[in-house]
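As a point of orientation, let us examine one representative protein, giving the amino acid sequence and backbone structure tokens.
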Amino acid sequence: MHLTPVEATLIGTTAGALASFSSTLLIQRATLARERESRIWERRATVYEDALTSVNRGERFRAGVLETGELPEVPAQRGREVEADLVLARLRIYGSRRVVNAHLRTVAAMTEWITSFAAWKEQAAYGRTPLRDAAEDPLWAAVLRQAKRAQDTDLEFAAIVQAEIQAGRSTRPLRSRLLWWRRPS
């Protein structure tokens, strides 16, 4: 079988066009994947910032209460609860299971601290004067223990978020997507 110059030109042009189209398609898919991943990381970073801001706010709140022995007036407390629920929902969408679980431990520790503080404060209703001395008042000692536990879980949460962000920067998922065709079946 003998090819004419016209047939050879058509075959060469078709092969070149297919190669050009395929490389354009591959580059476009890689670009879209990179942009999608970038958007997810931006959202994740925003959620992590919000969660860390919430934890920092809790730390300042706890420090102020421990210093004064009084709960501050918080007129917009309902707004804070809604904000905390929104942060948790967004963490469940964009965060890893490890970060979500660490955040839940942080919320649980803060709740236990508030519960122990309320028990310490309510003893006045039973005729006992609440003392801010761990040696004299076992309920205040419990408040301090729970405050320490809450602080430790806050620090653990911050470390987990930081480690996840650092690990996310070092991964190269796009390269693994581009090399899918080289993997043996």
In short: The longest helix spans residues 5-68. Residues 33 and 144 are 49 Å apart (CA to CA). The two ends are 37 Å apart (CA to CA).
